[in-house]
Amino acid sequence: MSDKTVKKQNVLNGAMVLVVATALVKIIGAVYKIPLTSIIGSLGRGYFASAYNIYTPVYAISMAGLPVAVSAIVSKNAALGKYRDVKQVLKLTFPLFLGLGIVGTGALLLAARPYVDSVGSPLAIYSVFAIAPSILFCCIMSTYRGYYEGLSNMYPTAISQVIESLGKLVFGLVFSYAMLDYANQQIALNGSVLGFKVETEADGAIVYALAAAGAILGVTLGTVFGAIYTILRHKIRKDGIGKEQLINSPLASPKKTTIKEIIAIAVPTAASSLVLNITNFIDTFMIQSRLESVVANNYDTIMGIYGNSVNAANIAKENIHTFLYGAYDTTLDFRNLVPTVMMTLGVSAIPIISAAVAKKDFKTVNGTVNTVFRITMLIALPAGAGFFALSEPIMNLLYKGTENEAGIAIAAPVLALYGLMMAILTLSSPLTNILQAIGRADVPAKSLALGCVFKIGLNYILIGIPEINVKGAVFGTAFFYLLCIFYNYAVLRKETGVRIDIKTVLVKPLIAAVLCGGTAYGSYAVLCNVLTFGDMSSRLNGQSLACLVSIGVAVLVYGICVLLMKTLVKDDILMLPKGEKLAKILEKYKLIG
């Protein structure tokens, strides 16, 4: 087997480990958020999202910049046989990560009150306080995750992610329900909770704010257990570097040299992630503030559009903007699903591309980049087509008959729009990782900063139009990522000479995705007329089954189209278990390119 093939298998096998873990995390997340939304409703989701979106910019520094820098430097040194340098990287970065975690937690606690007041959701402060300590434990985890990723061992990252999610699931649901029960008991006994008088249902926002804080506390405990696992894993199983490798390794570089190398990659990488997450933070502030303004100045127009949903949820006028944002936030679970899963592909590519660049093996770089792009499009395009075709059925399947049912009519059109933009949203992250791997971590920071300016302007204008309102955030987001992709790819091509095979990367997957979406829409329409059983006011009915069957049929049609058009190449098949045997079968029937 050629060296090139081995490298690609490593990249894709590593990605498969993370994809499986991420899929489990997303399933756990769905199991978590669906009943959570039933407990806390769209209003509680608004408080939950407000806390989460100030947390992510701080989290970005601890979990993005440094782990990527560690991964890239470790993989480069390992490729060159410099194992003493590999060990030194871990020794130098742990205290640095720990310090950042302490500072990040403190910064989040200090920023809590000004932030929640600025977004018009002062009751979200309990959720912000609950999530602040997780920064420290995330930093501890990221030390070991980056180190093992650099050694092309994705298992510690994958397992810690699953542990983190399970902790969130169990403790988040238990604590949110406990806080809800506690608040209701206090109201029944005293007519108030934490000094807030509750005389009518409209005064009950404090109840959902406390329930949201309980859910967020589960997130923090998940990071505690994840951090404990990574520490114990390293102490017990070590890193696989043997004594002979260390003996034959050259002396480690001076500590100052290693620190400078880490900073050279970490600072622009962290800046990129920080800009991205600050952009999301600005989104939280801007969307809610613009919605608050739109509701205040165009109340009749907004009620004409969303009146049924607002009245069904019994939302007071002053909370309508939070309710709309909470409904919008439910779509982000779907919008982020595919990009989060495919982000693992970029993470897995970092050590392989970094090692190839160190050896000046640009043929491997070109092949790996094409593989990353092709698989990204093969997943993102059909997923987006499915969300576009079945946005309302999917929302009904998950939220019909729950506290969030009133928000379905608001969320479904937003989800459909995000479906159309899915490929753009998904490609940006792997492309960023590839630039980081070739030593151009500064480029994504520049493109993101430029895109942020346009995004802020578009959001301000579009959300401020009453007829568009919250849907304006979708267009601003899509333009933001599109601008970043064009800028980043131009630099990548200039630096490495990479050439993308447009036919297999874009054209063929797009044709198959259109057929997939059309199949999903058509089969659902037909099956809804056939499967008419069950209570239409709940999720257990013929329409739910029609949605599930339609998704299955669409996936089958998509798979057939991909094979008949020979979209896959041999190296893509080799990533799978028994990949060599499967590749031979597909080659025999001329089903791969």
Q: Could you give a short account of the major beta sheet? A: 2 strands, antiparallel
What spatial form do the alpha-carbon principal axes imply? Answer: globular
**Could you tell me the number of beta strands?**
2
Helix count, DSSP H or I runs of 4 or more residues: 21
Helix content: over 70%
| Helix-strand string | HHHHHEEHHHHHHHHHHHHHHHH
Query: How many domains, in number, for the residues?
Result: 2
Strand order of the largest sheet: 1-2
Structural class by SSE content:
mainly alpha
Low-confidence stretches: 1-9
Q: End-to-end distance, in Å?
A: 19 Å
Mean pLDDT: 84
Tell me what portion of residues adopts beta-strand conformation.
under 5%
Radius of gyration using CA atoms only = 24 Å
Give the gist of this structure:
The chain is mainly alpha-helical. The protein has 21 helices and 2 strands.
